Every structure is written in structure tokens, then in C-alpha cells.
Amino acid sequence: MKAKRQAGRRAWVPLTVGACVLLALCLTYVLGFGEGARTLADRVALVMMVLAVLTLVVSLRRGTGAAAVEDGAALAGRLGQTVAGAELLSRRFIGGDRVPVRVTFAFRHSAHARTATRPLVPNGTLDGLVADYRAVRPRRLVITGEAGAGKSVLARAFVAEFNRSRTEAEPVPVLLALGDWGRQEPFRDWVVRHLVRDYGSTSAHAAQLMDLGLVLPVLDGLDEMDEPGVPLPESRAQQVLDALTGYQSGLEPAPVVLTCRTDLYDVLEASGRPMLDAARVEIDPVEAQEAVRFLAMRQDAVHREGAWRPVLDELRTHPQGVLARSLSTPWRLVAMATAYEQVNDPRELLGARTEQEITDRMFSRFIHASVRAVDEEAGYSPERVHAWLHQLALRLQARGGGANTLVLPELARSPGALWARALYVVTVGLLTLVTLRTFLPDAPQGSLGWGFVLLVVGITVMALMCLRPGGIRLLPHAAMGLPPWRSPLWAVAAKTALTGRSRWGVLVLSVLPTLVLWRTLAPERLGGMADWTMASAILPTLMLYAGLVAGQVLDAAVIGPSGWPRGGALVALVLLCPAGVLLGLSLRAGLGLGTALPPLVLFGLLYCALCGDTVMYLCWLLVHLRRVPFRLSRFLDWCHAAGLIRITGGVYQFRHREFQEWLARHPVPLTRPTAPARDSATARTP
After folding, report:
1. Are 416 and 398 in contact (CB under 8 A)?
2. Measuring CA to CA, which residue among 465, 11, 385 is closest to residue 202?
3. 88 and 46 together in one domain
4. 128 and 267 in one domain?
5. Given this model, what pLDDT does residue 537 score?
6. Are 530 and 523 a contacting pair, CB within 8 Å?
7. How many C-beta neighbours within 10 Å does residue 210 have?
């Protein structure tokens, strides 16, 4: 416990230093080195600026996680609720149409001696996976299968079911994609980083949960970490297994669940360095009779029996044929059923000679059928959807290392985003130059002018520090996630902000807006301006500020990855409202645009310091304007509803790695959609 308190103090040191520097700049700017705050208005301004610094420090403290140590069970309960909201298993991913694919598995014997004990009578089904896992000692499990066998679906189902039946003494299962694990990053720090980024936790609380053993990492995608041809001893996958072997909870091996492709794990196991103390299950291929049952029970097969009958007959007659082998995984079976649902003729697959030819024809129809199944009035044509997803797949391919996650704040830091970063630097530089150029000719002599220059330079440095991936952020990502504008989560946010653990922080954050209203509405003898016109103009800013504070108490994963751009937009509105008021007052007084320009540009520079990641993201969108939609988060949310994209925590992923790689190779569909086939036996005349 003492070590945790010392770590909290170390985390608090840079915030204290930054607060002192900002406070010194504020005092220099207001007091002017001896000139003093002579009037009541100057004294009120001094108090407001000091409170603004304190408010900023409170926000930073909440965002960086330098919080008091809380009860581990309470933290685990909150994390479990967040995971439950983030990892809802869509029926579209296991088949849809109320007909799921039956996923079965079997325990495999390990070639080494250090293996976990297995259940005496395993269930071997998707519904019984949690019961089988609880019978494993120690609780370390490796899920293997062929590409598309349903490893990710099994992992998601495990997270949902285990979290639903979890006791207080058991850890919280958290699904994590292994694609961004760095070679030099300790496993514990990597999990903590994902808990903060994907599930809205603070660094201190995430570290506390890891130290207490209350997090069960469910690691997906070990086979997607390395490029083909990488020597096994130098591979990132081997480093992951070595790290997991040493991952302990006290003196016992810590619980963990891992997914990997069968052939790769066989090689890793034969090398003598697999994950020790773990049991292994192998997902069974989908038999031809199960494929027939699944396809025959779907609604479209009932309505278009004549179109589907030859396909089903082929599967029955040749259970080891090309078509049966192509549909031997749940992913391919679901993709095929979706691609020919209500449109296109599935009989075209009977003429394919290779599995690759079946894959190309199936994926060419997949996007068009998914778009048609969701909403044809959303404004996204299948051709545009294919082109945009192709560009995103190329971005992931350029990152290398098996990248399969789309994190919106990190797009501008990808290897191919140099022009976006350059545009951001030019934007910050121009705002700084314009601010100083418009202020310096009329600046007062002495310390007051130098104080303002130092303030501008400090804001510029903070804005440029956003270029670093691990740089200091005044508003962290976890504090900027906001739900959709009409979402009922806003009522939950308001109630939590007023009655939850953060109510004292909300009280401190409300001091500054209260003083602003007092300064505007109070009579002159009490230090106010008694200006109702100004108060009505400031009120929208305060309402937006309250919405930003309320949204910070919600978990980022509950909101989803698209909540981060909305947070950046709300911060922009908070700064834009007073800037608009200032511009209107200047024009009404006949001062012209030249008088209002310096504060407006200063507000823009301040926004870059507060939300540098948002500005960099906008720069990336401008650079790639003709290749991806400008409202990218809205498009990706729509793709999630269409079953083309999945959401894991706070990141986007393609439906399957095979689909992502196919899109990267094909800028346009190979074939055009065909009209629905009519069944003469079931057709009716009007």
C-alpha cells in the first residue's frame, strides 16, 4: 500500500509543477509585477484565473488517474458493468436470423508436462465454455482453430457469459486485441493502457485492479501479430508466450485466455516455449451436415427454396468437396448466408473450382448484401462503402505488425500520416504567429506584455506536445467521450455527476461558471456588471460546459469509440460561444474585425492545446478527404450495424482479418450484384 501511495505522489509531481507554472503566468499577467490589481474588476479577474487553474488541475487529476485507492471489489464491479455494456455479442456475428451456428470444441493433449488439469466431463459447446473454464486448474486456457473457425466469437461469448455469472472473488474478463503490444512494453502496463483507453478507467484504478488480480485478460489474435516469414525466436508471438508464462498472481500462474490459429500454435508448442500451465481446446470444423442445417433453417432458404436446393444438395452429396471445405468455418458460413440473403443467386458458387474463387465471389457480394440488409436510405452506396473500407484496410496494412484495430485518435500518428502531422504543425504555427503579430504592436510595455507572450508560448508548447504518442494531454481521451446527443445516457451522466463519487470534483468545477454568472448579473456595487444581454449570451457556453462535465463521468466503452469526436466538438463549441459573443460586441461597438481577431485566434490556439488529438484527426480527414468520409466515426458506427465492422472496447476492427486482407487487395468488387432468383415452384401470380 505504501508503494501505491508513493506511485500516486510521483504521478502527481508533474501536475503540481504544471499548475504552479500556469498559476505564475496568471499572476504575472494580472498583477503586472507590482502594478497590482487596483480595481475591483481586476481583483475579480485574478480570483477567476486562479480558480480556472485549480479547475484545470482537478480535471488533470481525474484524467491521469492520480486518485485515492478504492475498494477493489467496487472497482471490479464498475469495470464489469463497463465490459457488459461494451461487449454485447451481436447475433449477426454468430449467424443472425435467430439461427446461430453451432460452435463445438474439444480439449487437446499438450506435448509438454506443465499443463493445466481439464474437466472430467467437458461440455464442448459454446454455452458450456465458462463451466469448462472454471474446471481448469490453473485457470489458463488457449483456444485454437483454423482461420475463421470462430475463435473471436468464442472469446466474446466467453467474456459475456463469464461476466454475467461472475462472483466478487473472480476477476473481470476483458477482451483485448494483441495487435499493438510492443516488444519492450511489460504485459501489465499494456493491459493498464488498454483499460484506460478502451474502457474509460483511470491509470491508478487500472493498476490497482491488475495488482489485486481482478482482471482476466482474454487475448485475441496471437496469430495476427507477425508478418509471414519472421523467424520464430524473433517473433512477437513468441515474446507474448514468454511474457504470459511469467505472468503470475502471487505464487500461482495468473488466469488468462488466449486465442491463436492452430498451425501457428502447433509450431510454437513444438518449439518448446508455449504458454505453460494452460489447457488447450480446439474448435471443431463445421461439418457439411451442420452447414446444411444452418442454411436450410434461414428465412431466405425457406422463401427461395429453388435457389438454395442445389447448394444444399451439393453439400449433402460431396461433404468433402470444394464448397464444403470453403464453408467449414462459422465466419465463412455466415458470410456466405449474408452475401446471398434475398439478393443474388447462390447457385453461382457451384461453378467455382477452388476455395479462393468461392471466397472472391462471396466477398464481392457480402458488402452489397450487408448494405441492403441494414438501410438503403443511409446515403451509402455499396460501391462507396467498398472503396472507403478498402482505404481503411490499406491504412492498417501500412502500419504492419498485424495491425487490425482502428483507433481514431491515433490515425494521425500512423506511419503514412506525415502530411496530417505537418498540416497540424503549420496550423499551430500560424495561430501562434497571428496571435503575437496582432498583440505585440499594441502591447503594453513591461512585464504585462512579456507575461502574455510567455502565456502564448506555453499554450503553443502544450499544443505541439500532442504530436507525441505519450505526451501530456490537458483533456485525456477517457474524459472526452460523450454519448449521442439524444441518448438516455445523458440522464445517467447528470445523476452520476450530482450524486456519485465525483460530486466534489463537479462542485469545484462549477465554481468558475458561478463566478462568471455573478460577474455578469450582479449589480455594480457588488462587483458585477448587471448586464442581462451579456448573461444571455454566456448562458449557452455554461450549458455546454455543464454537458462536458456530465459526460466525463461516463465510461468510454459504454459510449463507444465514436464518442471521442463528439467530445472534441463540444469543447470547440464551449470556446466558440464566447468568441462569437466577443465578435458580436466588437462589431456592435464599431471596433471592426481587427479588434476581435487576437482573442479569436488565441481561442483557436487554446483549442489546439486542449484538444490537439481532435485537431490532428481533422487534419488527417482533410488530407484523406476524397478517400474516406469526413464523418468517419458515423460511417464506422453504421458499418458496425451492417455487420462489416465490430467494436472491441473503444476501438473498431474489421469483421474478420481475412475480410480485411481481401479488401486491401481489391479496390473494387470483382462482380456486380445480380437480381434475386425467382423460384417457379413457389411463385404466386398477383
Report:
1. yes
2. 11
3. no
4. yes
5. 64
6. yes
7. 20
